[in-house]
Automatic annotation (TrEMBL):
Classification via InterPro entries: AdipoR/HlyIII-related (IPR004254)
Bilayer-spanning residue ranges: 39-61, 73-94, 100-120, 132-155, 161-183, 204-224
Membrane topology: Multi-pass membrane protein
Taxonomic classification: Eukaryota, Viridiplantae, Streptophyta, Embryophyta, Tracheophyta
Protein name: Heptahelical transmembrane protein 2
Organism of origin: Brassica cretica (Mustard)
The keyword Transmembrane is annotated on this UniProt entry: yes
Keywords of this entry: Membrane, Metal-binding, Stress response, Transmembrane, Transmembrane helix, Zinc
Recorded GO CC terms: membrane
Binding site for Zn(2+): 57, 202, 206
Length: 235
C-alpha cells in the first residue's frame, strides 16, 4: 500500500511539473506562493454564466413570464462572466501595484453591476434592444484594453505576459465574432426555419463564447505563472 501511494504521488508530481513547464518555460515554480481565489472567481463566473444560459434555454419556453425572467437571467450571467474574467489577470499582473489593481478591479465591478441592473430591466429584454445588449457586452469586454496596455508597458520584456496578451487578443476576436453572429442573425435570416434546430446564430454565438473563455483561461494561467516566478515582486 505504501508503494502504491508513493507511486501515485510521484505520478501526480510529474504531471504538475509537466504542466508547469508548458506554461512557464523558465522552470518549476512553487504553487503555494500566490492566492488562488482570483482564479476561482473566474471559474465561478464562467460556470455561472453557462448554467444561467442552460436554464434560460430550458425554461424560457414555459410561459411569457418565464421567458422574460430567464432571458434577463441569461444576459446578467454573461455580464457576470465578463466581470469575473478580469479578476485573475488583473490581480496577478498588478500584485505589486496595489493601487492600480484596486482601481481596475473596482472600475470593472461597478461597470458590471450597472450592466447587470440595466439588463435585468424587462424593457431591455425586447428584441429591438438586441444590438444594445451586444454593444454593452462588447464595451465591457474591450474596456480590458486599458489594463492590458498598462501590463504590457510594465512587463513587455517578460514572455509570459506577451503570450498571454496574444491569447487575450484571440479571446476578444472570438467574442466579437460571436456577437456579430448574434446581432446579424446569420444564417437563419438567409433561410428562415432551416436552422431552428441546429446552426442557429445563437448557437454559434455560444460556441464562440466558450472558445473565448478557453483562450482567456490559458492567458490567466500564463499570468499566474508569471507572478509565481516572482512572488516577492522582483519583476
Amino acid at each position: 500500500m505504501l508503494v502504491s501511494r508513493n507511486g501515485h504521488k510521484n505520478l501526480r508530481d510529474s504531471n504538475v511539473t509537466h504542466t508547469t513547464s508548458f506554461l512557464n518555460p523558465q522552470g518549476e515554480v512553487n504553487y503555494e506562493t500566490i492566492p488562488k481565489w482570483p482564479w476561482l472567481v473566474f471559474l465561478t463566473g464562467a460556470m455561472t454564466c453557462l448554467i444561467c444560459s442552460s436554464m434560460s434555454h430550458l425554461f424560457a419556453c414555459h410561459s411569457r413570464r418565464f421567458n422574460l425572467f430567464f432571458w434577463r437571467l441569461d444576459y446578467a450571467g454573461i455580464s457576470l462572466m465578463i466581470v469575473c474574467s478580469f479578476f485573475a489577470p488583473i490581480y496577478y499582473a498588478f500584485s505589486c501595484h496595489t493601487n492600480w489593481r484596486l482601481f481596475y478591479l473596482s472600475s470593472i465591478s461597478i461597470l458590471g453591476l450597472l450592466a447587470i441592473f440595466a439588463l435585468l430591466s424587462p424593457a431591455l429584454s425586447a428584441p429591438r434592444f438586441r444590438s444594445f445588449r451586444a454593444a454593452l457586452f462588447l464595451t465591457m469586454g474591450f474596456s480590458g484594453v486599458i489594463p492590458a496596455s498598462h501590463v504590457l508597458y510594465l512587463h513587455k520584456d517578460h514572455p509570459n505576459v506577451v503570450i498571454a496578451l496574444g491569447y487575450e487578443l484571440a479571446m476578444a476576436v472570438l467574442y466579437a465574432t460571436g456577437a456579430g453572429f448574434y446581432v446579424s442573425r446569420i444564417p437563419e435570416r438567409w433561410k428562415p426555419g432551416a436552422f431552428d434546430i441546429a446552426g442557429h446564430s445563437h448557437q454559434i454565438f455560444h460556441v464562440f463564447v466558450v472558445l473565448g473563455a478557453l483562450a482567456h483561461s490559458v492567458a490567466s494561467l500564463l499570468i499566474m505563472d508569471f507572478r509565481r516566478a516572482s512572488p516577492s515582486c522582483a519583476f
